[in-house]
Amino acid sequence: MFFHMKELQYEAKPSKPDPIFANQLQEILGGQFGEISVALQYLFQGWNSRTTDKYRDLLMDVGTEELAHVEMLATMIARLLDKAPLADLEKAAENPVTAAILGGMNPQHAIVSGLGALPADSAGNRWTADYIGASGNLLADFRANLTAESQGRLQAVRLYEATTDPGVKDMLAFLIARDTMHQNMWKAAIAEIEAQENIVVPSTFPRELENQYVSYDFYNLSAGEESKKGRWAKGASMDSMGEFNYVSPAPAYGEAPKLKPAPPYMHNTPPTTREE
Amino acid sequence: MFFHMKELQYEAKPSKPDPIFANQLQEILGGQFGEISVALQYLFQGWNSRTTDKYRDLLMDVGTEELAHVEMLATMIARLLDKAPLADLEKAAENPVTAAILGGMNPQHAIVSGLGALPADSAGNRWTADYIGASGNLLADFRANLTAESQGRLQAVRLYEATTDPGVKDMLAFLIARDTMHQNMWKAAIAEIEAQENIVVPSTFPRELENQYVSYDFYNLSAGEESKKGRWAKGASMDSMGEFNYVSPAPAYGEAPKLKPAPPYMHNTPPTTREE
Amino acid sequence: MFFHMKELQYEAKPSKPDPIFANQLQEILGGQFGEISVALQYLFQGWNSRTTDKYRDLLMDVGTEELAHVEMLATMIARLLDKAPLADLEKAAENPVTAAILGGMNPQHAIVSGLGALPADSAGNRWTADYIGASGNLLADFRANLTAESQGRLQAVRLYEATTDPGVKDMLAFLIARDTMHQNMWKAAIAEIEAQENIVVPSTFPRELENQYVSYDFYNLSAGEESKKGRWAKGASMDSMGEFNYVSPAPAYGEAPKLKPAPPYMHNTPPTTREE
Amino acid sequence: MFFHMKELQYEAKPSKPDPIFANQLQEILGGQFGEISVALQYLFQGWNSRTTDKYRDLLMDVGTEELAHVEMLATMIARLLDKAPLADLEKAAENPVTAAILGGMNPQHAIVSGLGALPADSAGNRWTADYIGASGNLLADFRANLTAESQGRLQAVRLYEATTDPGVKDMLAFLIARDTMHQNMWKAAIAEIEAQENIVVPSTFPRELENQYVSYDFYNLSAGEESKKGRWAKGASMDSMGEFNYVSPAPAYGEAPKLKPAPPYMHNTPPTTREE
Amino acid sequence: MFFHMKELQYEAKPSKPDPIFANQLQEILGGQFGEISVALQYLFQGWNSRTTDKYRDLLMDVGTEELAHVEMLATMIARLLDKAPLADLEKAAENPVTAAILGGMNPQHAIVSGLGALPADSAGNRWTADYIGASGNLLADFRANLTAESQGRLQAVRLYEATTDPGVKDMLAFLIARDTMHQNMWKAAIAEIEAQENIVVPSTFPRELENQYVSYDFYNLSAGEESKKGRWAKGASMDSMGEFNYVSPAPAYGEAPKLKPAPPYMHNTPPTTREE
Amino acid sequence: MFFHMKELQYEAKPSKPDPIFANQLQEILGGQFGEISVALQYLFQGWNSRTTDKYRDLLMDVGTEELAHVEMLATMIARLLDKAPLADLEKAAENPVTAAILGGMNPQHAIVSGLGALPADSAGNRWTADYIGASGNLLADFRANLTAESQGRLQAVRLYEATTDPGVKDMLAFLIARDTMHQNMWKAAIAEIEAQENIVVPSTFPRELENQYVSYDFYNLSAGEESKKGRWAKGASMDSMGEFNYVSPAPAYGEAPKLKPAPPYMHNTPPTTREE
User: Distance (Å) from the C-alpha of residue E197 to the closest C-alpha of chain A?
Assistant: First the structure.
């Protein structure tokens, strides 16, 4: 159960409206790695959690914080849209600023949401749960969370570079700092689990059931061997259970497949079709 | 540029058809963390790569291998669908096996693809590029890749538990082993970059520009303090640049927002609407 | 900013697991009119609100309650999935209960979410922000909200009819009661605004700018005049500004359109294509 | 069965081309509340109708009219696109009008549709049946229809404000007038059903089966009590079956949930993971 | 502008309900190549038509017929759903017929649409305009139309094989016959245009502007030369403008690409990252 | 199994960056008829192929070539994005070139992909497998392939017209030439199969089972008889099995449908609702 308090977690006030930047900012609100994604991802992981209490609580705390970030961004976007113009080509042609706005803003910010934030990204794609996941395996999920915070902070930094507005920069500087914490936090949680389970997810599958003779092979599947120069191509494997092995060229263990003809009730093209 | 050879990377032959399992197996072909996802994710990261050659080559090698996995799964699914029945309730009611098949298979495997694999997941959702990304920042992207291999191996293991078919188990045992390698591999690549850059993505954003007074705070936003028990709540931060700090209850740094009224040409509800 | 408390708004305990019903219940969690939809719809309307405080507060209160409903449903679904089997055709064929489960459950509940709730509907479609909206016009939006509560309660009632589990029925009886309140509530809020603005959204557009000679015409566009029997076909219009007028057959006010040929650089088929 | 006549329901001729406005106009053709949505929503409700003939006929009449609106908008958009330029940065940089067009138009109007209308909204999202519904319950569905006409008229009015073209304004003035009628019409149909059934959907579910002690409670779930000032917080409920009751703070009726561990074959993280 | 008459184009009465088949039949109503797709594809092509009148009329006639097919299928599906049960595992386990139904039906047919047709395919995916197109080039579009009729008839035939119900078979026999006509019809229209324009779309692009030295080469990009045996590998090209040429192995005309480093404000991984 | 070689199939070097054109070019990379679509469509058709070897090999060869085209376009787009600016309204307003770029580029090219290609179209929609298909019937599928090459070449030609950059024009001239070949090739493959099977897909369904009395009727469903002037309205049918027959007006073979009331547990609106 949730409670809402009216204060924002941090100020969300631009110096002046900018509907182009409002559109760009949608990316970290409703994009693939935006705040809706992390909020719902962490909350679903928390709600579905069948393991130790501290992890559930961790997920609920951070998921709840991300809801506050959705709120801050929605507020900032609405303010950046203050007085956004409605216009057509005739008006655009007379004024380069209007032309720039018409080009760079999302027309739905006027027509659909009435100068409000949209649950969408900077290209106008509506948010979808395709972006998130909760698998029941914490190591797999915390890696997804670390990914989201990494991509999210990267995008926030690029947006910081894109604006000259001190109010926007200040809010982004707060969100960037929180992403610093959240990357550190998931990194810490991952380290804790890896220390207990080793690194390969899931750790509970018996190693002898997998085809272990290919478990540490790197397959060179392209001309050139630049890929041989990395840590992944030699030395002890990261799980300390094997030795990396660079295999060039990569073998084919299987045969060329030959599928059976389809039964007649399928009305596929039959193989009796003439060969030359 | 690519070349194709007819051999499969590994055998993909079930002992007998099973259209229910064919549908389940679609998850790791065309699902969020399936082989289409990793193939296209690694290839796009490779094609967009503006950095050191060995990383581009690594991405192209592994992306190219994943195409072979798509091929193996498509082949296996087609074989599991051999002779899948077309039937209605009347036929289903006479035969519990037919009833089970009708319930558990995806009808599109007959009606749409003619006993062939679909570019879709086990719930019938078509594959979408919503699942993938390439950001230009390798640490962010390699974390996405490690996530995909972790989720993907978890799903392959669950499918291994779900089947009794030795041919299917054998192919899964190969894919599971390759995911062991790929988790080790991305882990190694990540370690290499973290050693150079520290752990927070992007490492090139000046720390003094972020609001550093919140960069290591954990905010307790729920009743109870179970989340205090983790590594993330105390001690040196993982980036060695700060100290984790558990803050309970979490503060609000911002004010309650009050948006300006919309301009009349928006025809929003005006604030003059009567208060009680 | 939000806070989370660990108690559920209402109990969410089934008498026993039922993975088929777990899938059905997903509809009111992650479907078009499910709890994610209403939670995010109300919150976005609240965050974007540029009008009187009591409406913003109303939206935030109810949006926050809907988050608690998402939580209850996620919890219930996870419990209904306890011990859900992983199985293939061979196992299904030996046991009619297993066959029924395999057919009626969503395989992603095992393979993807590890016996956790999904952000998806009962047909496995992931939730999308296509379902929601916030227009800045409260009368338009409150009508959307009343619609969502009407469709949502209808679905909850159908699910109540579908289950024999007393624990599930009890939770649904709570949600159904809350939907009773929420329909009453939006109805009350709508009545308040309609009393001030009249019923046509938006009320601020000058009537003389619309083509008023068609503002109260009902057009019969099909054979037969059954549609003449309703309140909409005669008498004073609901906005008291006109008189309903049944027009049969309906007129065409425009001409047959004839588009100009495309410019050559478009490479469309040119109109010089031979007439017979 | 349908017949087509070549005349448009109303003229659709702009004074001159304007590819930017063509893109904006897509919103009410192929957007969430555009004409494709209402056409298919009403037709599906009509085709699925299992109730009194006059409602089926009403739905078919209006659904058929909406097809004519799709046609008018498609025609208008095609004309607004006449001679839309194909251009790159070099050309854009020489001419501010070209720059404005390049920015504000949808490139697919040239590359994909060859200066024709798209089944998409003003942000380029293709139309999807996610937008529509037909539940079999007329009161629920007519509320959805009233919502669509309210949102649709609001968007048409905003577009009217956005253009200076008299031909476009004239067509919008027609569509706005029809939306006036359609709001009145659904309002009338709703009133008719509410008079028979009372207001809560579905009316056929026995009240004694819902948890009636919460059927009229308003839960304050945020700091502050602004939400207490509305009609929804006191007085007789709109269905005349109860009394609104403002509850502050809102209670939790349930316990903190504790899910059972997942079975081993799921390979979720087990709860034995170390607490601190 | 359209008119609706109440008669169906053809009868749509099953002998008895069958909710499993109702779900399968959704494929040709709301699937990729279903009747909604062809109806809207032909209508959009007609509305956007900038060429000779007979083609516009052809498109409008056939698009209008397809609306009648949507109607017939919606009616048939609703009838197949008559009395479809709402049930959970407990009921399913007692009755194999109920178990089969629960497995094979789409739960949304009960919960969402109240025993009505859905604008969705047989896997429950909602219809999307991703499936259709109108390019302004009739030869390109008529090929899309012939494709849709070919895929559509194939699916209808598979469904014919899947059912034992004489009423359903009769309606499918009608639709299959219409698809026979529609394939013949598009074939005829294509022949007419190809006779005027030759076969390569678009025919208006000057041949000398393309890199003609590769315009008739077949590239062998796989081991083995089975692909050499077809008509496409030798002899005069189908446009009579060249000679097919089998090239094995295929050449690479380009160099290995090397992208420039990203500018610092992008915060991509810089190429200075250490090579081994 | 696939191998990658580092050389591009053809050069992909623009003369200078142009982020607006980069966005336009996305259409033929990640759009409905772009290179991802043809690559995966041909590969899935190949993998699922249950017929003669030469067709499988044909599909694999061409699918593999299309992967090289994805690669070329990704490379070209990345280069067109070199140094693309990050900017807000303030910067845009000072410089018309910046304004044009901000308007015409996809902001995700900076914020999300860090100056790399996206798996998306020119309107920013992510690629989806909704675009492709593999039915098991080669004639149906080769028609889909011919369609894709026709639409694809049309789009490439329009893009050729849109750019003044000689490097981009050169690459497009190569792709256009390959599309010339691919149209010829699918045309040849289609001719081969039609010669064996006749033209109606599927050819294996017994003609006597369809309702043959409507198999060659053209239904005039609109006012006017322009559609009578085409080859499709008279003369021998294209399959030589009948005679085209123009029927005007078109008949209705079915009755007006009347659906049964829904069972009470559905809570649909009952038909007892009052008629006037």
Answer: 30
